[in-house]
Design goal:
The strands form seven sheets. This protein has a five-stranded antiparallel β-sheet, with no helix packed on it. Strands 7-16-11-13-15 form a five-stranded antiparallel β-sheet, with no helix packed on it. It contains one helix and 24 strands. The chain has about 325 residues and is mainly beta.
Length: about 325
Amino acid sequence: MIKNLLLTIISTCLILASYSQQQLENPGYEYWEYAGTVKDEPVDWSSIKTSDVPGLNPTAPLVWGQSDDAHTGNYSLKLFNVAIFNIVATGTITNGRVHSDMIPDKGYVFTDPDNAKWHTPFTDRPDSLVGWYKFFPQGEDICQVRAVIHTSSCQIPENGTYSNWVGDAIFYSPSVELSTWTRFSVPFTYHSSNNPEYILLVLNSGNGTTAVEGSIAYFDDLQLIYNPEGLEESMDGEFIVYAYNNSLFLNIQSPEKYQCMIMEVFDLSGRMLIGRSFTPDRSNVFHVNLKPGIYVCRIQTGIRTINQKLYVY
């Protein structure tokens, strides 16, 4: 009875929160539009071909594309690094606008508060940013995703706008090939108590101004995570759990600390759908059949009990 009451309270918090929590625009890159360039751009996102320097736009290389290799839905975003004029143009997409320059260190992306086409209003404080990616690096290259929640104007790199930053999250990939869709999750770090006004993101297929020609990255299904009080997302880094392709994956940093575990999955009504005991390994895979939605996953270790939201796409 107590367990069901607790889960019902948690579930109610999740349901109520879902009505007010803001998400990104076109986060799965399902929608594309003609933007006056030779290649369509994803709706609500822009490229180096639509920068604020019209004189450079015609000669800017294509560093993005629509891919039908999707994590979910029909499409994903493909970014790739291209060499031009003895420099490497990094694959870049932003929900703000690009400022281009022939000197790479002088380029940046920015929010334009005065033009709705180049900004994304945002007033929430999410806990983390998650998404899915594939990566085919050249040399020691990495891909990256950065999100900044801010007031007024903002640039990435900050270029004197840091005082407007409320919080940010940044993901740096490992420099290894990932040919299957892989989930990333990074927390937001908050620097200010100011009320947010906008969110600015930039996605790159290379390591900024040191990107390597030929690196390719795919991105799909970006999402902002909000945690009601008492419900963990990162599990302190000791546990990572997620669902993908009819399987539930539980990665444990130090499985040798535990002899036996119990995993339970509940729907938002508090009804237990899965309950299994197992001897933990570093990587544990459970075949499940869950409909798309939000669930509560409970891990009991004998030492502690952890509850986490579980998203099934």
